[in-house]
């Protein structure tokens, strides 16, 4: 049983790494589509989201098969369950990229964002994509130190997100209420995406090493 | 094994029903705290949230024990995994109630919401609480028909949520950008809460009956 278990766990980890790559591509494209009002790219993100949903279903099936056939216990059991949770968060990250792409489509050919907030979203997008790519690397390399570095990237997204509010609420905000509402929701999508990435990273470390990283709890 | 399995599954279902009751209380109090600028009530929701987090950890432990000791397969396995997912969504619903309570605390003694949108939140709050209470009932009574009725309640929340945007973006909106941002985020919290409730209801039907309800897929 042990060998079959490890082969199947390896397959599951590979699938999760692929999902991480997909949702980082999705967020990269969605951010570009939003910043450059690129309708074609937005449409691509929107139609590709079903692939992420399918990948998540595949991960669950693989995990179920592993549980049913190998009946792992103790740490092995927790590893499989961590993988199921990670797949759920990754699907949610795909949904958040989808929301960004839909905003780009909804406002097209108008830009979604006024010029003065675009740099914040360019930065949040860059960090969010980097977070998801690191998750992919962590699962491939089992590099726990890389997982720790995710925390500071997540803090950066939180800082930009907080700063965005002060920009929107400044008395010099001249883009009206509708744009403020768009910026508010979009900011939240990036913040949630980054949060999920950190949560996945922690679970991935657990999947790869069987030990939960010791740093502070991240709000799900 | 079969009998032990059913006793343990029953315990797990009871725990999930309790969690449903807790998060419906939390949303009821958070909504009241927000609408009546009741700081004490807001503080209570905020401090009680750790109980929901603990309950979720308990549910996971029970589910892990069940998997490790009983090694269920096929439908039985899926039921336990559905319970783990349900616990995660319920914890998230608690977090969303917490966000509402924190908004009430942040603006206290000022009201969070201008008078003209308060009725929308009173309605969304009422429906959200009803959704969570129905989830509790579904798990206790195994009434699948009740689960189906959740969909229309969720549609109502979506309708109110959509209508809120038209109120905020109306040219007669006179409450400024900061308030619009608050209303936007709070509206989203109720919408997400209702979505999670429907998702939990579907999983609860599965936990109670071993069959997934046949109605259309709900976006997580």
UniProtKB/TrEMBL annotation, chains A, B:
GO CC aspect terms: cytoplasm
GO aspect biological process, one term: negative regulation of phosphate metabolic process
Subcellular location: Cytoplasm
Record flagged with keyword Methyltransferase: no
Domain named PhoU: residues: 16-103, 122-203
Family indicated by similarity: Belongs to the PhoU family.
Quaternary structure and interacting proteins, as annotated: Homodimer.
Functional note: Plays a role in the regulation of phosphate uptake.
Protein name (database record): Phosphate-specific transport system accessory protein PhoU
Organism of origin: Saccharomonospora cyanea NA-134
